[in-house]
Amino acid sequence: MELLTDINVRRTTQSKIAEVDFADLEFGKHISDHMLVCDYVRGEWKTPHIVPFGNLVANPSTLALHYGQTVFEGMKAFRMNDGRINVFRMEKHYKRFVRSLERMCMAVVPKEIFVEGITRLVQLDQAWIPEQQGNALYIRPVVFASEAKFGVKVAEEYRFIIFTGPVPALYADPIRVKVERDYIRAARGGTGYAKCGGNYGGAFLPTLQARQQGYDQVLWTDARENRFIEESGMMNVFFVINDTLVTPPLSDSILDGITRDSLLTIARDLAYKTEERPVSVEELKNAFATGAITEAFGAGTAAVVAPIGTIGIDGEDYALPAYTKMSISSRLKLKIDRLRSGREEDRFNWNYII
Ligand SMILES: *Cc1c(COP(=O)(O)O)cnc(C)c1O
Fold it and tell me: Taking burial as the number of CB atoms within 10 A of a residue's CB, which of 53, 61, 131, 233 is the most buried?
């Protein structure tokens, strides 16, 4: 690939790869040898640098630490069957990154720096891409307000960093989720559709309380009436009701998940019935009563599909049938896995081969 962006590269002399047990990976534990760093100063993005991964030095008045201008992405690179490297849906991740940055009034990273930065970084650390089917190299781009000045204001300086790390395929056991009626994650007009730091910090307390009550995650409801389901923890949510794959419609309080979009596209292609429409808590209760609901699952890059086994609604637990290879969620997940690894034709042009 012909690169448009000048990227300075300083390679490490001490790779840490020998410390990794690729047969027993843990999500978020290991970080690859290099990172990309690029600064935005006086209205322009400077030359990106790839340097050995290491700590940052921060002035205590760094604006991001006080007023929360931070935005991230989460995506994955895979080693394909034929040995090539695939960054799944790079384009769509970039577009979402831009939407998040714009919502937070932050400098937008140019596409060449994003795409070529990821390409160079992943090429350089390609030994870190797990070979085992389903495992992947997680890619974490992040931008934060790096200007040191403590008045409340939109920052004029930003730092863009990309680092990566090997992660396992999460074969999650079905989880227990609780319909959250007191706390909310996002409201109309808010920042729910952006991948900005504050959305996650604000979700920890309700999640912790749900854990104390014996659940793994919360099912967020809308901010106005606490009546319509929005997302499952930090994942989009799907239900199978009357053999139809149903998910709440996108709005400014629901994150436009790349996995959500991939699942819907594949389901339609396989001629499953799909609906993007509001799902109320009453509808779920009725669907349990009549047996119309057969599956519920979270959807996100980390697990692709996280099956839900139990939904707690206002103090009562409702159980879903066991998941099998025949479940719609399992079939869709398998299809995505096959497409990403090159075992199936990339008909939607989702693979970015580097
Ligand atoms: C990242 C995220 C998702 C899932 O998005 P993917 O692109 O599929 O990984 C869903 N909801 C929230 C709140 C998220 O932050």
Answer: 233
Q: Which residues of the chain are in CATH 3.30.470.10 domains?
A: 8-167
The pocket around ligand 1, CB under 6 angstroms, is made up of 74, 195, 231, 234-236, 255, 257-260, 300-301
Atom of ligand 1 nearest to the CA of 185: 13
Cβ atoms of 68 and 199 within 8 Å: the answer is no
> Do you know the residue count of the chain?
354
Amino acid at 123: Q
CATH code for residues 8-167 = 3.30.470.10
pLDDT tens digits, 303-325: 999 999 999 999 999 999 999 99
Q: CATH 3.20.10.10 in the chain: give the residue spans.
A: 175-340
CA atoms lying within 13 Å on the CB side of residue 177: 29
Asked if residue 3 has pLDDT above 80, the reply is no
Digit-coded pLDDT (tens) for 229-239? 999 999 999 99
For a mutational test of ligand 1's pocket, the pick from 70, 71, 96, 234, i.e. the residue with the most ligand atoms closer than 8 A to its C-beta, is 234
Residue to probe by mutation, ligand 1, list 196, 220, 250, 301, most atoms within 8 Å of CB: 301
Q: Which of ligand 1's atoms lies nearest the C-alpha of 299?
A: 8
69, 61 contact by CB (below 8 A)? no
Residue 170 has pLDDT above 90, yes or no: no
> In this structure, which topology does domain 175-340 adopt according to CATH?
D-amino Acid Aminotransferase; Chain A, domain 2 (3.20.10)
